[in-house]
Write a structure and sequence with these properties.
This protein has six helices and eleven strands. The protein is of the alpha+beta class and 229 residues long. It has a four-stranded mixed β-sheet with strand order 9-8-7-10, covered by helices on one side. The protein has a three-stranded antiparallel β-sheet with strand order 1-4-11, with no helix packed on it. A two-stranded antiparallel sheet has the order 2-3. The longest helix is centred in the middle third of the chain and has 14 residues.
C-alpha cells in the first residue's frame, strides 16, 4: 500500500449505524447510535506527527510506522494543532494543569473517535470478532516478529480502514469507567505484542491519559458540526 503523505492524510466517510458495546468485567452491554463521521484510513504515522508537532516520541523509528509512545493528552493536543494548521476550529478546550478536557461538538476540527464510533468503523458492517482473517488484517504477537510494522501493509476492512486491529492500540475519547478507574481512557484494537484474543472488534483496554506506551498510538476523526439552533 502506498502510504505517502497524501495517502496517510486520507479520511474515510463512515456511514451512520448502531453498535452494541460490551464490557467483560461488568458483563454489561449497551447500544449506541452512531452518526456519520470521518475517520483516518491509517493510524497517525511518525512522519505526520513530526510534521505537526516537530517531535518524534516513538521508541521504534520509521516514517511509515505508527506513532507510539504518545499519551492521550498528546493525542488530543495533536488533534487541536492539526486543526489550527488547516484553519479548522479545534475540537477540544484543554487545561492540562487542571487535567480537564471539553469537546466542542460544534467544532469542525480533528478529534479522537468515541469508542462507539471506533467499533462501528472497525466492524464495517460485519458481526464477527474481526473483519477478516487475523493474519491477513492484523499484526499481532503471532506474526509481528516482536516489533511494530508500517501502516497499511495488511488488508483493510470493507470501508477502506487499515490497521484497525493489531499493530498499535488506538486511544479513544471516552473515559473507561470513572467510578472504578477515574480518568483512565479507552483503548481499542489490539497491538503487535498482543495475543490473538486482544485483536477483536469488541475488546476494551484502559490506560491513564498521561501514560506513554510503546504499543499505543491513535487515529483521528472529524464530524460535520450540527446546526446551531
Amino acid at each position: 500500500m502506498d502510504t505517502g503523505t497524501e495517502a496517510e492524510n486520507t479520511m474515510v466517510a463512515v456511514p451512520p449505524g448502531q453498535v452494541t458495546l460490551s464490557d467483560r468485567r461488568t458483563q454489561r452491554s449497551w447500544h449506541v447510535e452512531v452518526a456519520p463521521f470521518q475517520l483516518s484510513a491509517f493510524p497517525v504515522t511518525q512522519s505526520r506527527y513530526a510534521r505537526v508537532t516537530g517531535r518524534r516520541p516513538s521508541s521504534a523509528r520509521g516514517d511509515r510506522l505508527p506513532v507510539e509512545g504518545v499519551s492521550w493528552w498528546d493525542a488530543v493536543q495533536f488533534c487541536n494543532a492539526l486543526s489550527q494548521r488547516e484553519g479548522l476550529t479545534p475540537a477540544y478546550r484543554l487545561d492540562t494543569t487542571a487535567e480537564t478536557a471539553e469537546w466542542d461538538a460544534f467544532a469542525d476540527g480533528y478529534r479522537l473517535p468515541t469508542e462507539a464510533e471506533w467499533e462501528h468503523a472497525c466492524r464495517a458492517g460485519t458481526t464477527g470478532p474481526r473483519y477478516g482473517q487475523l493474519d491477513e488484517v492484523a499484526w499481532h504477537q503471532g506474526n509481528s516478529g516482536g516489533q511494530i510494522h508500517p501502516v497499511g501493509d495488511k488488508q483493510p476492512n470493507a470501508w477502506g480502514l487499515y490497521d484497525m486491529l493489531g499493530n498499535v492500540w488506538d486511544w479513544c475519547w471516552d473515559v473507561y469507567d470513572a467510578e472504578v478507574y477515574g480518568t483512565y481512557r479507552v483503548l481499542r484494537g489490539g497491538g503487535w505484542a498482543d495475543e490473538h484474543w486482544s485483536c477483536r472488534a469488541s475488546v476494551r483496554r484502559r490506560s491513564h491519559p498521561t501514560f506513554r506506551i510503546d504499543d499505543v498510538g491513535f487515529r483521528i476523526a472529524r464530524s460535520a458540526p450540527p446546526h446551531r439552533p
